[in-house]
Amino acid sequence: MDQYIGLDVSLKDTAISIREDGKRIWRGKRASDPKLLAQVIRKHAPNAKRVIFETGPLSTWFYHALTAEGIPAICIEARHAQKILNETLNKTDANDADGLAQLAEAGFYKAVRVKSFDSMLTRTLVGARNQLLSISTQLSNQIRGLMKTFGLIIPKGTGRVFDGNVRELLAGNDDLARIILPLLEAWRDIRKRAADLDRQLLAVARRSQASKLLTTIPGIGAVTAVSYIAAIEDPDNFRTSRSVGAWLGLTTRRYQSGEVDYNGHISRRGDNHLRGLLYEAATVLLTSASARTESSLKSRGLQLRERLGFKRAAVAVARKLAVIMPSMLRTGEVFNASAGAIA
């Protein structure tokens, strides 16, 4: 007989439920250690067919570690699972594990693709860089806001210009300087660390032929190219290139009930950061006057801007970019400026 296992994973402990022939045969709780859980599964479910758990902070580690132990691990979409698990009267980890085991036995779940550790390492690099840039912006805004209180308006400028303007305005105001200068030093240090991660990111982009290929698209830089490749990994992960646009939440939502049938805003599902990068790339493509950006894609996007407005046109161009890029990765061809009109 085959056994079906549900794992309700948390940071400290993992609830385990094992089912066989429509009945629960064992359940318990162990520390959230994949090797320990693999031992428990081999002991109580020697013929394990499916071991499922939901997406979460530990899902990448669990999936690869359990798979390496020979366990048939499957990571499933948490949103879908929760709609069923929420029907349970008493919400406990043990009951959630039971529900997951039932989903495993029924086959009623949506498996998700778990990224490799290499891809996650790249995404971590991009995320750390973005976090430092965000902190830098917050600190500079904080400095500007604090100094306004005393009538010291910092002129526009970034980097060394900003640093010089702040120090110049603080000259002769020692009491305020003792408060602001520590913030300014922290701002400078954060920018240095962000620059270090920038160099690492550019090095990753230079080593990747796929990244070099994608940067032939106007508006696509190293950060967007590396983020895109880390997100989709292999273009063959998608049945068609058009699926990538929907996967990134760039397609419109539809609502139909009775006589009502309309399309709403984009779904905004998937990778928020990558979707934002593609929107920025589309904005650059539509607003840049450079001859390098001239293409059929831009021409069609400008036509849509006249008819639908800038934001909708930018979303349409971003969706088209998401569709074009996997095709380029499959064929190894550079961006064709005469092709790529928006469907």
From TrEMBL:
Signal peptide: none annotated. GO terms for biological process: DNA transposition. Residues 5-149 form the Transposase IS110-like N-terminal domain. Residues 212-290 form the Transposase IS116/IS110/IS902 C-terminal domain. GO terms for molecular function: DNA binding; transposase activity. It comes from the Bacteria. Pfam families: DEDD_Tnp_IS110, Transposase_20. InterPro entries: Transp_IS110-like_N, Transpos_IS110, Transposase_20. This is IS110 family transposase. It comes from Sinorhizobium terangae.
